[in-house]
Amino acid sequence: MELLESVKQRLFSQVDVLDPALNEEDVKDRVLAIISDIERKKKEQFPPETIEQVLRAILDELFGYSVLTPLITDPTITEIMINGPFQVYVEVNGKKRLSNVRFSSHQHLMRVLEKMLHHSFRRVDESNPYTDFSLPDGSRVNVIIPPVSLTGPVITIRKFLRTFNSIDDLVQAGSLTREMGEFLVSAIRSRLNIIFSGATGAGKTTTLSVLLHYLDPDERLVVIEDTAELIIEHPHVVRLEARYSNIEGRGEVSIRDLFRNSLRMRPDRIVIGEVRGEESLDMLQAIISGHKGSLAVLHADNPTDAVARLETMVTIYNEKIPLWLVQKQIAQGIDLIVQQERMKDGVRRITYITEVIGSDGSDVLLQDIFRFEQVGISADGKVEGRWVKLNQEPKVVGKMRKMGVEVKREWFYDDSN
């Protein structure tokens, strides 16, 4: 729109778009004054709806995220994938589709990116062409720019799903059964050590965020993340975020650094947003030495793979530690693995709740308490299947009863058989 571009050009020469003192009323007055001046010079009047459209677009540009604002505020959209200025995909109900949103130019997209980065203390430039950060609403953003990206600036926004606030919400969404939800709440309250495993976008962080609602409010919670993503409503929480090195290669603060420091902060629980490296051994040793109730996220395809990844991470960074000892520590430290998967129909289901029952000198021994068995796909594309129970009492029940937490027989036994 010619009027919009003319107003933006004049307005942006007058104001600093990143000035925290900028307010909507002042911008509205300036925009209307600019439009009046254009009307006077052109000797014509613009329709009220055109003026409103220009005003809305500029307010979104300055106080929102420009053309992305409607996508970010749309609750049906779970992910936004920007492949350069002229191609924006969105995910709705687990399906990706091309939207009609476009940026006017490469510079326009970079200006919006700069606004996104403003409060994150992260940067992107030719010497540091990619980074992760979070928006104020908890949405997670990954960005990679030229010269590494040949497509132009590529931005992926995984929106935080505020619709999930309780186990009932997850049950309603088809992520798990009510028995599974009640069991997980009791497991959290029993201070079991739990790994949340799954691929990118499987819903691990959402499930963990929901379960954190059920913690004892008197507990001191220390949360460690590479990029702040968890939304936590807890009265006593300390949040720590890793920091990349500066342009001189100094100032890095790793997840391992933060984890080691957290042990001196009198935590009742430690939550690690993602275990990915040398902090894995510190975590296992801390759990074994008495820091119960630890919760962590891990990228893996199934519970067996999650254990293998832990083994690999520990041994890669600590070559002198034999595998059998690592396996013994995993068996002593980890109680449950909650596996989640985004399935073909877009539903993010917990496909396994698996307990660690020991080690035999060559493997860590696992036992599925619940698992999802897919039987097919319906004509309308929905995944069909059912959750299967263990039909015996899990080993972790002993720890749960010692903590005085309620355990129900029907969680584990299918009395219909």
Fold and architecture overview:
The chain is built from 13 helices and 15 strands. The chain is of the alpha/beta class and 417 residues long. It folds into 3 domains: 54 residues, no CATH class; 85 residues, Beta-Lactamase, CATH 3.30.450; 245 residues, Rossmann fold (3-Layer(aba) Sandwich), CATH 3.40.50.300. The strands form 2 sheets. A 9-stranded mixed beta sheet has the order 9-8-10-11-7-12-13-14-15, with helices on both faces. Strands 3-2-1-6-5-4 form a 6-stranded antiparallel beta sheet. Helix 1 crosses helix 2 and helix 1 packs across helix 3. The protein is elongated, with a radius of gyration of 25 Å. It starts with a helix and ends in a 15-residue tail after the last helix.
Mean pLDDT: 90
What is the name of the CATH class of the largest domain? Alpha Beta
Known CATH architecture of the largest domain: 3-Layer(aba) Sandwich
What's the tally of helices?
A: 13
CATH topology of the largest domain: Rossmann fold
CATH homology-level superfamily of the largest domain: P-loop containing nucleotide triphosphate hydrolases
Provide a quick synopsis of the model:
With 417 residues, the protein is of the alpha/beta class. Helix content is 33%, strand content 23%.
Question: Any descriptors?
Answer:
33% helix; Rossmann fold; Beta-Lactamase; 23% strand; 417 residues; nine-stranded mixed β-sheet
